[in-house]
Design brief:
about 1850 residues; alpha+beta; 6-stranded antiparallel sheet; 69 helices; elongated
Length: about 1850
């Protein structure tokens, strides 16, 4: 952001001294500024702002002076304005009237409770900023701390230190101040966007302020973040919506704040007024519930005065023609050619861009390119670029689709594959071809081969259903080879679905006639041609465009639209340019009173027409009336614009008559008439009108104009009239004019030439001089030689040194007086000097002095020089004033000529003949004393003062002579020598006067030299200025600015010697300013011009230039602490000191040489050091203000070398104090640095640290960051990283290239220092996001050369960068897979921009949906692709530039190496950790195995079959009862321990397994030696596969306890079953009692009957016998029932037999009959099974049936809604199975019950055990059957089981 031009010599308010105030109270500190309240006891008070410390004085002064320069634009009503300036502690300060020092920053901690309060404050802030913008001020540092609150609640804006004027151009003397407040700066402030800082930047910053005031939080980031993090936030972090931070914020208000915080200026508010309109609307619709009616923001926006061209068409209406043509191509499958022609700017590119938006979403292959006029390219560049877009698109497809295209291309290309790859290198990856055969260029059919190859590509790409569309824009710039190729493509591919669109200029705008012929041939070759010409915009369209851009009603813009249409013809580009220029010129302006756009219709009408309209106008010129054509020609001869009165005088016609005759030209838009003035509408119209007159008519008109204007000049003496007359005279100067005319015109041309020369218009002056020369050819003027001199001077001043030298050489060979020849000789000598040929300059001057009789030897000896000095000293005496001030001016022309020649010799003799220098000026002074004063005399006296001061130590006498020389120049007004006299005074003044006097002399010398055209000495003055500012210790940034401006001036002037010195100074300053420290090799390579390279080749013995080169190289080595190299440089230039008499360079050379020597071993005895010390002692006496501090520092170093500690420390302190008083920052820093070094050597660490810290501060204040880095390396414990507050105004770089370089260095350092893989990835991702300005980033690793795997992803959030390490395959929702695939396959970087811009990947779904700009860069390691870096930004589509690509590529190269190193290191660590884990696990496993064997009673064994040796574990031996010492036994021995009953089986198993190589497993018994029998389970596995089984490994487990447990479990299970049966039987007690009671009752009844039959007489034995039989029968029946019950309730051995299931069921029913009857349950038997015999345990089956029946009975409660029914069914589902079902009509089985009904101990009964069904399921399973349960559809449940038939 360019700053205002400020005068750093501004005087302070004399009447105010801050020290006179009684109290000074600090109010606040903002970065480098300190605000204080100054009070007197009388009550008077004021506020001052000044630098907060000496370290930041430079930055603070820049800001304060910049604000002061803006005072005229500020008003106390809305701004905090300074009323004056003063100084405080020798620091610049601004004075303000006392005001309440409260800012909005004080209120941020307590956000407003009500939204209405916020809106009120927001509108006040907007009003304040709007006032600044209305004054044309861009504030540049909007933040809460700069909005001050008045007592009445109003806000005023302050802090204008970084402000600028929006319309201000960068002036030569303006200073560049970069900085701002990190938390509130705009994206434009970062320097990372293409947009400049403007009023829109203030609106963004205001958005941050309003967001923070409303929510109490910043929209992103934290105050602790650094500069890099804040820059990244402002360009890539989306702010959190305010409604998410504060719940009561209305959504509409959040939308407005987000619009303010848009990253791109075009997306945000354009003016404060637009923002205020929306805030007022919010205020008007705000309800008590904090709701705001939604509306579209920005509708009342006003067009920004900082005009930006916008596209007129979002969708060009004529683009439909292309789409219709494409449909025809797709439908017919044939070719079409679309020829889109039009004038430049007519909308051709707009049609293509509009069509591309639709085409890229069609099912086509799209190839787009553009021929470039200015980019040198290979043949076929446009076609190759088009094919490349298609190839890249195909490379982004899936592997399957890509393979199909590969096969098709290979088939159709055939033998042209290598040629195609040469045209489109990416085809190599597409076709998967590793090696390419070189193409034979000199083949006779090379062009035909190329045509065949291109046709094959078209045939391959154009497929039915998917046409190929090739668009080439600006084809008129294409090379001939491309044009011929296109013709062949059209001719050969008629029957392919191929559409070729060519856009080109038409008519006169066509760059070459050959292209027009080619286009005609192309049109004739095509089968179907569609011609399309963009239509101009109508007045109605322009009206709509203006209404949309200016936010006004269309009806109010019709007049403006009509004017624009007339001036531009409706050409879109011309229209935008015309409007932009009108806004820039203030013809169209936005004003606040009232708030609307205003335009000056008359000024717009008077403006020239645009180029395209000029073309249309010229076509109508031939149809103009003849009288009008003649008048147009006459006016064109008179000028492009002027007064009609001149033509009226020439033609003797009235002005009104002329206006009447010109009416057709005005209507035809050839000219405009305003009052009595005319103006051609365009330069092309003017030129065409000029050709309407023939040469004779033109000459006649010029003669009449010259005559009339010449008379007017004599009468009016008006400069404009003079130059117009000279123009017409020049047009007729070659004609045969009369002597009278020539004599009349000649002096006018001379006057015009002198006027133009004075004005610095040397080209016009040359033109007028040549006219005068032509006029003088036929007249005797006596001024021909002087004309030549004037011409040579103008050529010289214009920079044409070679031409000027040729003119001087010609003049010196022509006749002329000696005085005239001396002028040519002087000019020739100066030209030689400017051309760095000082030897020839001196020879020229000496040769012409000899002509005048002045003979000088080139190398006079010291005696001759001393004699001349003594002689002139005697004549001058002690008072130069008395000797020269009363001398008269010289009147002798020859003497003046000699003195001028001598003056031209003075300066050049310093280069080649230093001895001659002083002798020459002594001779000049002798002639001056003899003949009087001339300008050259004053110049000689000035240089005399310089030379004698150094040689004879006559400093005060010399300075007195210099003052006299300046007085002589001023008194006699020797204009030519003013600057030349001031410069020596500067050079001499430094030795006796304050340094500011010398600085001012050099500045004044430059000003005067520029004013009077003395460019040579202007360059020399620039060199002195910079030399003085370096000596004074000015801030290096200011010095660098001066050097840059000096270089620009010197290069325009062509003075290579001075340019060389400035380049040397620049390189020294650049090294000192390098924030990364000194770099090796910079010093020796810093001064290339000495070696003969640019900017100028050094030739000849140039002692002075060589001295400068050695001096600056030595100083560079000294500052870099390379003292030995510095001494070498200083030693080389010591003999050259005579070439720089009295220059300040002498002090630098001796000072730094002495210090370099003092820091070398053995320096204490150096004579050189003592000599240098003596020099400084004398200089310090002469001028203590400049030399005393240096002298004290040298004395300190000498005392240190002598071991005099006390004296050394005293002198160090003296040097520090004196340098601080003098303001010499670099000397102050150096003194502290050397003092700290000495204290460190004395082990005075506390003092050393204090000195070094002070040195660091001073170096930083000087701007020498390299010195700060150097001290930080030597004293790392004193390094305190700069913590710049995010809310304080600080300086920071806006130089993107510098920032990029710093970023790369920082990133590379961070990447190389990290070895941990996870931390390295986190660091890499964070750096990539911040440095590349990305929102999201993915690190993708390439596996097996092609397979991508995401290793990490990162995204920028409002809180910072979030990194996640993952391991996953990228998918289409993560990134554009087509871009990733293309990068992997081509190994090339791919970068996409705005979504609307076409690219080969525009159709990727991810890019279409997200609108993101992406940057995808491959990572290579040793030429192998190892990964891909993917970055994207959705907030700023133009975020990724070529510079970003370069950074990312640089980082990717380093990252690839670092990641691979870290990965290898991680793998090595993992391998070591794994090995340690395995070893630990093995040790643990061995222990665990032994413990496990004991716990599980399992032993292990390993049997070597061939040796029959079995190694066993301890547990194995314990199981077998082996002795403790026995570790093995043979298989035979083992088999002897097997139980005899199991021996045969186990022996056979072992033998068979070994023979077959199989596993072995068995359960058997062994007999221990103690006789105990143990049950064993053994397992053995072969180690190797059969038939090479040599070893078995296995285990044996002691399962004796398990067997015993199993037996106990079986017994317990039997008891449980018995108990369950008894329980079940108990539930049928009534039925069982009934069943038993029946036989018992029958027995009792039959017994009674038997007794009665026996007691009868006669005894009825037969009846008694029958009754006894019944008793026996019922007794047996009762016994069977009892035995059945006993069987159910007793434990019994299972006995299986064939039983009939139907009979078993009937028995169970018999037991249950009474219970069924008691409960009223009906019984239904459907025993339909034909086969019911099963092989079973009868008792167990009875138990199952009994359990199922009892459960069914229990399920049918008394309150059933339906009849209770128990149904038993049977069937044979298969011939071998029997299915038996027990169905009930109860409540059924709930879902939760049905799943758990067979679980143990699960019951739904109140007193059940929950084991009945579990046991039943086990019984059925034991009988190889299945038991199940399910619900019936009609209600109730069904239990069923199946059993195999017996």
């Amino acid at each position: 952001m360019s700053m205002l031009s400020v005068n750093f010599q501004e005087s302070d308010d004399a009447g105010i001294a801050i020290e006179d105030f009684d109290t000074l109270t600090p109010l606040a500190q903002d970065g480098c500024l300190l605000w204080m309240l100054a009070r007197r006891h009388s009550g008077e008070s004021l506020i001052i702002a000044t630098g907060q410390s000496d370290d930041v004085t430079f930055q603070a002064t820049q800001r304060l002076k910049n604000e002061r320069a803006l005072a005229a634009y500020l008003s106390p009503r809305w701004a905090i304005t300074a009323t004056g300036t003063t100084r405080y502690l020798n620091r610049y300060a601004l004075i303000y009237p006392t005001f309440p020092f409260r800012s909005l920053a004080n209120n941020l901690a307590t956000p407003p409770d009500k939204i209405a309060d916020f809106l009120q404050v927001a509108l006040q802030l907007c009003y304040t900023l709007g006032q600044a913008h209305h004054q044309g001020i861009v504030h540049g540092d909007i933040k809460p701390g700069h909005f001050f609150i008045s007592d009445d609640g109003r806000f005023r804006l302050g802090g204008f230190g970084l402000a600028s004027l929006a319309a201000q151009s960068a002036e030569k003397n303006s200073l560049r101040v970069s900085g701002g407040t990190l938390a509130y700066m705009s994206p434009e402030h970062t320097g990372r966007t293409p947009h400049p800082v403007s009023s829109l930047s203030d609106l963004y910053s205001l958005g941050v302020v309003l967001y923070e005031y409303l929510t109490g939080k910043l929209p992103f980031g934290s105050p602790d973040a650094g500069e890099a993090e804040w820059i990244h936030h402002h360009i890539a972090s989306a702010p959190r919506p305010a409604g998410q931070v504060r719940e009561d914020v209305p959504p509409m208000l959040s939308v407005i704040l987000l619009r303010l915080l848009a990253k791109s200026p075009a997306d945000g508010y354009q003016t404060v007024q637009g923002l205020m309109a929306d805030l007022r609307r919010c205020q008007a619709t705000l309800t008590a519930e904090n709701t705001i009616a939604p509306f579209t923001p920005g509708l009342q926006e006003r067009f920004s005065t900082s005009f930006r061209p916008e596209t007129l068409f979002t969708q060009h209406p004529q683009a439909r023609v292309l789409l219709t043509t494409l449909d025809a191509v797709n439908r017919t499958g044939t070719q079409s050619l679309v020829m889109l022609s039009g004038a430049p700017g007519s909308g051709k590119s707009a049609i293509i861009a509009s069509a591309l938006k639709t085409l890229q979403h069609r099912q086509i292959l799209l190839a787009a390119s553009k021929a470039d006029q200015h980019s040198p390219a290979a043949p076929y560049a446009a076609v190759a670029s088009a094919f490349r877009t298609v190839t890249l698109y195909l490379l982004g497809l899936s592997a399957l689709e890509l393979s199909k295209w590969r096969v098709r291309l290979l088939r159709l290309l055939g033998g042209y594959t290598d040629l195609a790859i040469e045209l489109v290198p990416e085809l190599k990856q597409l076709l998967n071809i590793r090696t390419v055969q070189p193409v034979v260029r000199h083949a006779p059919d090379a062009r035909e081969q190329f045509n065949q190859m291109a046709s094959a590509l078209i045939q391959a790409f154009a497929t039915p259903g998917r046409p190929l569309v090739m668009l080439i824009d600006d084809v008129h710039w294409a090379d001939n080879a491309t044009l011929q190729l296109l013709e062949n493509l059209i001719t050969r591919n008629e029957h392919l679905p191929f559409m070729l669109v060519l856009a080109f200029r038409e008519g006169e705008s066509m760059p070459c006639p050959m292209i027009a012929g080619f286009l005609l041939r192309l049109r004739a070759s095509a089968a179907r041609v569609v011609a399309l010409t963009p239509q101009p915009l109508s007045v109605k369209s322009i009206t709509r465009w203006l209404a949309g851009m200016l936010h006004t009603r269309p009806g109010g813009n019709r007049e403006l639209a009509q004017i624009i249409f007339e001036k531009t013809g409706g050409n879109p580009l011309s229209m935008q340019e015309f409007f932009r220029q009108a806004v820039d010129d203030g013809v169209i302006v936005y004003r606040q009173n009232p708030l609307k756009w205003h335009y000056d219709s008359q000024a717009l009408i008077a403006r020239q027409y645009t180029d395209n309209v000029a073309t249309l106008v010229l076509n109508q010129l031939a149809r103009m009336p003849e009288a009008t054509r003649q008048l147009l020609g006459s006016l064109a001869c008179l000028g492009a614009s002027g007064e009609l009165s001149l033509l009226s005088h020439i033609n003797a016609t009235s002005v009104s008559r002329i206006q009447q005759q010109l009416e057709p030209a005005v209507s035809g838009r050839f000219i405009t008439l305003t009052g009595g003035n005319y103006a051609f509408t365009h330069d092309r119209v003017h030129n065409a009108a000029f050709l309407l007159l023939d040469l004779r008519q033109q000459h006649s008109l010029h003669q009449q104009a010259a005559a009339w204007l010449s008379a007017a000049v004599v009468n009016a003496d008006h400069s404009e009239t003079l130059f117009r007359a000279a123009y017409h005279i020049g047009m007729i100067a070659e004609l045969p004019l009369s002597v009278a005319d020539r004599e009349r015109y000649y002096p006018l041309c001379l006057r015009a030439a002198q006027g133009a020369k004075r004005a610095g218009d040397y080209l016009s002056a040359l033109r007028y001089l040549r006219s005068a020369q032509q006029l003088s050819q036929r007249m005797v003027t006596g001024n021909d030689f002087m004309l030549g001199i004037d011409e040579a001077e103008c050529e010289f001043l214009h920079g044409n040194l070679t031409t000027a030298q040729k003119l001087c050489t010609r003049l010196l060979s022509e006749p002329g007086t000696l005085s005239e020849k001396s002028m040519a000789a002087c000019l020739s000598a100066e030209i030689h000097m400017r051309q760095s040929d000082n030897h020839l300059a001196l020879e020229t001057a000496l040769a012409w002095l000899a002509v005048f009789g002045v003979h000088l030897r080139r190398d006079p000896d010291d005696a001759e020089i001393d004699a001349a000095w003594q002689a002139i000293r005697a004549r001058i005496g002690d008072s130069p004033q008395a000797a020269f001030s009363h001398l008269p001016r010289n009147t002798d022309q020859e003497t003046e000529s000699v003195l001028n020649l001598m003056a031209s010799t003075i300066f050049v003799s310093a280069y080649d003949c230093p001895q001659l220098h002083l002798l020459l000026v002594c001779r000049m002074l002798e002639m001056t004393l003899d003949h009087g004063v001339t300008g050259a005399s004053a110049f000689g006296l000035a240089w005399f003062s310089v030379l004698i001061s150094e040689r004879y130590q006559a400093w005060h006498f010399g300075y007195a002579c210099g003052r006299v020389a300046r007085e002589l120049v001023e008194r006699h007004d020797f204009t030519r020598y003013k600057a030349r006299t001031l410069l020596p005074l500067d050079q001499l003044g430094i030795w006796t006067q304050p340094l500011d006097v010398a600085v001012e002399s050099a500045r004044e010398s430059f000003r005067v030299a520029v004013m009077h055209g003395d460019r040579s000495f202007a360059c020399l003055s620039l060199r002195h200025q910079i030399m003085n500012t370096l000596t004074r210790g000015d801030h290096l940034e200011s010095v660098m600015t001066s050097i840059e401006r000096g270089l620009a001036f010197t290069r325009k002037t062509f003075y290579p010697d001075v340019e060389n010195v400035l380049v040397m100074q620049k390189q020294l300053v650049m090294q000192l300013r390098n924030s990364n420290g000194f770099r090796a090799g910079d010093r020796d390579g810093a001064l290339p011009m000495v070696a003969g390279s640019e900017p100028g080749v050094i030739s000849g013995p140039k002692a002075m230039v060589l001295f400068w080169a050695g001096l600056y190289r030595g100083m560079a080595h000294f500052f870099a602490a390379e003292y030995r190299e510095a001494l070498r440089c200083f030693a080389e230039i010591r003999p050259l000191t005579s070439a720089v008499p009295a220059y300040i360079y002498l002090m630098d050379m001796h000072f730094y040489s002495a210090l370099s020597l003092s820091l070398q071993p053995g320096a204490a005895d150096s004579n050189t050091l003592r000599c240098d010390l003596d020099k400084f002692a004398g200089w310090a006496d002469l001028n203590p203000g400049l030399f005393a501090d240096k002298y004290a520092l040298l004395r300190a170093e000498c005392a240190r070398l002598a071991g005099n500690t006390g004296e050394a420390l005293k002198q160090y302190e003296n040097a520090i104090c004196l340098s601080r008083q003098g303001g010499y920052l670099h000397i102050h820093a150096l003194a502290n640095q050397l003092a700290g070094r000495y204290c460190k050597a004395l082990q005075l660490d506390t003092a050393a640290d204090a000195y070094v810290k002070a040195s660091m501060r001073s170096w930083e204040s000087w701007g020498a960051l390299a010195m700060v880095r150097q001290l930080e390396q030597h004293y790392p414990h004193l390094t305190t990283p700069m913590q710049n507050s995010a809310v304080a105004t600080i300086p920071f770089t806006q130089d993107a290239s510098f920032y990029d370089l710093e970023s790369v260095l920082t990133a590379v350092r961070a990447l190389t220092e990290e070895i941990n893989l996870d931390r390295l990835i986190h660091t890499l991702m964070r750096i990539l996001l911040e440095r590349a300005g990305a929102q999201r980033c993915r690190l993708i690793r390439i596996l097996d050369g092609t397979l991508p795997e995401t290793q990490a992803w990162a995204e920028s959030t409002a809180d910072g960068v979030r990194v996640q390490i993952v391991k996953e395959r990228p998918v289409a929702t993560d990134l554009p897979l087509s871009v990733l695939a293309a990068v992997i396959r081509t190994g090339q970087e791919i970068r996409t921009g705005k979504p609307e811009e076409f690219s080969p990947f525009s159709q990727d779904p991810y890019l279409v949906a997200s609108g993101a700009a992406v940057l995808c860069v491959p990572m290579f390691r040793q030429a192998n692709m190892v990964g891909v870096l993917y970055l994207e930004n959705r907030l700023m589509p133009d975020a990724f530039t070529a510079e970003h690509s370069h950074i990312v590529k640089t980082l990717s190269a380093q990252a690839a190496v670092s990641l691979e190193t870290a990965r290898l290191y991680a793998e090595l660590l993992e391998e070591n950790n794994h090995r340690r884990r395995v070893e630990k696990q093995l040790r643990a496993s061995k222990t665990s195995l032994m413990l496990g064997e004991k716990i599980s009673h399992t032993g292990t064994w390993r049997w070597e079959v061939a040796e029959d040796m079995m190694m066993v574990s301890e547990e194995y031996g314990r199981i077998l009862g082996l002795p403790a010492h026995q570790k093995g036994l043979s298989m035979a021995d083992f088999l002897t321990r097997v139980h005899p009953d199991d021996y045969e089986c186990i022996s056979e198993l072992v033998t068979h397994s070994v023979s077959q190589g199989r596993s072995m497993q068995a359960e058997f018994r062994v007999l221990r030696p103690d006789g105990e029998c143990r049950y064993i389970k053994g397992i053995g596995e072969p180690v190797e596969n059969f038939p090479e089984v040599k070893e078995y490994f296995g285990t044996i487990s002691d399962i004796t306890s398990q067997r015993q447990a199993e037996d106990a479990a079986r017994m317990a299970q039997a008891d449980l079953a018995r108990v369950t049966r008894a329980t079940t039987v108990g539930q049928l007690t009534a039925s069982i009692a009934h069943e038993i009671n029946q036989p018992l009752m029958s027995i009792v009844a039959n017994a009674g009957a038997s007794l009665r039959w026996l007691k009868r007489e006669p005894v009825m034995l037969e009846n008694a016998s029958s009754s006894l039989d019944e008793i026996i029968k019922e007794g047996k029946r009762a016994g069977e029932i009892i035995r059945g019950l006993q069987a159910l309730t007793r434990n019994h051995e299972s006995s299986f037999a064939s039983e009939n299931l139907h009979l078993i069921a009937r028995d169970i029913l018999a037991l249950s009959r009474v219970e069924l009857e008691r409960r009223g349950i009906s019984l239904e038997l459907k025993l339909r099974a034909g086969k019911a015999d099963i092989y079973c345990d009868r008792v167990q089956i009875q138990q199952v049936l009994l359990n199922l029946v009892i459960n069914a009975i229990d399920a049918m409660s008394d309150d059933l809604p339906r009849a209770a029914l128990l149904r038993l069914t049977s069937e044979n589902p298969t011939p071998d199975t029997l299915r038996f079902e027990v169905l009930d009509s109860g409540c059924g089985l709930p879902d939760g019950v049905r799943e758990r009904i067979f679980e143990s101990f699960y019951t739904t009964k109140k007193s059940g055990m929950g084991m009945g069904l579990t046991i039943s399921k086990g019984i059925i399973k034991k009988h190889c059957g299945e038991l199940g349960a399910e619900n019936r559809a009609e209600g109730g449940s069904r239990f069923w089981f199946t059993l195999p038939l017996g």
